[in-house]
Design goal:
about 325 residues; mainly alpha; Ammonium transporter fold; two-stranded antiparallel ribbon; 15 helices; about 55% helix
């Protein structure tokens, strides 16, 4: 009798955590940040979030149907991709931006590689990079917090990058404003407090580990402190951590299971690389923020890191 065995893509890990449980727990851990984003930037932010999520789910179902694959739109992965993309968008973008972005994230960055588990790059970040390259005007206009007259302003990182201010306090902001989200930025990245609460939940559930976040933030904070524009060892560590989309990227995108290394040592190397690249882009690059690009670049090295930091096979003897 001939037996047929089907071997799935690695990693082959047996556990009680299923894909839907993981995806939906991450999804719901991000809801507080989205609610605060809607409160801070208005109801248009809610429509952008909904459009992004719905488009991602519909695109996934359409492509899987056309390819005659099993429909998996209820596993939460498409919804999470749409949510993360929306959180990386300003509240001022026209409604077609999240639609095109979510379609790109699912169709090109995910399903073109074969679907969940086979994509090389984080789909939401790949879509954000695509939108930034195609429509930078819309992607770099940010609404002021609680603005009722559609006023826009560049982010604090942009103002500092352009030399218009030397410290964020020059535009009447303090650390509490940065922590609570009372500043210009993308919908889901400004509410640091809400993001940290979601991250604590994921850490408690052991859905994510601290290896990538600590090495990412530690390397960025250290380099930002040492190599500041004002001189050596004069950098503002808290500002480097609370500004831009660092907290969103560190805990919710850099820790993506598919596009980050498997081993603990590999995760540390991955996080260090992300932190160094973020600093280099912020300090010397053309963009004021480098979190998204640093994660995408390190995604490309994730498989190589896994090969270098090889997991010992069961029964394999240690070599000297």
């Amino acid at each position: 009798m001939k037996d047929n065995f089907f071997v799935s893509f690695s990693p082959h890990i047996l556990g009680k955590k299923s894909t839907p449980k993981l995806m939906w727990r991450v999804f719901f851990s991000l809801i507080p940040a989205g609610l605060l984003g809607v409160i801070i930037f208005g109801l248009k932010a809610l429509w952008i979030i909904l459009l992004s999520i719905i488009t991602a789910i519909l695109t996934e179902g359409l492509i899987q149907g056309l390819a005659k694959r099993r429909i998996t739109i209820l596993d939460g992965s498409a919804a999470l991709t749409g949510l993360l993309l929306a959180y990386n968008l300003p509240s001022t973008v026209p409604f077609w931006i999240p639609v095109i972005g979510s379609f790109f994230a699912i169709a090109i960055a995910k399903q073109a590689f074969g679907g969940l588990g086979r994509n090389i790059f984080n789909p939401a970040l790949a879509a954000r990079a695509f939108l930034m390259a195609c429509w930078p005007f819309y992607m770099t206009r940010f609404s002021l917090p609680f603005s009722v007259d559609a006023k826009t302003q560049a982010t604090v990182l942009t103002l500092i990058k352009d030399g218009k201010i030397s410290h964020f306090s020059e535009i009447s902001l303090n650390y509490l404003d940065l922590f609570l989200g009372f500043r210009g930025g993308c919908i889901g990245e400004v509410a640091v407090l809400a993001l940290l609460l979601g991250a604590i939940y994921l850490l408690y559930q052991r859905i994510i580990l601290l290896h990538i976040p600590l090495s990412f933030m530690g390397s960025l904070a250290t380099l930002s402190w040492i190599f500041d524009k004002q001189g050596f060892f004069k950098g503002d560590i808290l500002f480097s951590l609370f500004s831009g989309g660092l907290i969103l990227g560190v805990f919710f995108m850099a820790t993506d299971y598919v596009t980050s290394p498997l081993t603990k040592k590999g995760k540390i190397i991955f996080g260090l690389g992300c932190g160094v690249l973020t600093f280099v882009i912020r300090r010397f690059g053309g963009y004021p923020e480098g979190v998204s690009y640093s994660i995408l670049i390190m995604n490309a090295f994730s498989s190589l890191i896994d090969k270098l930091i090889r997991v010992k096979r069961y029964g394999e003897k240690k070599t000297t």
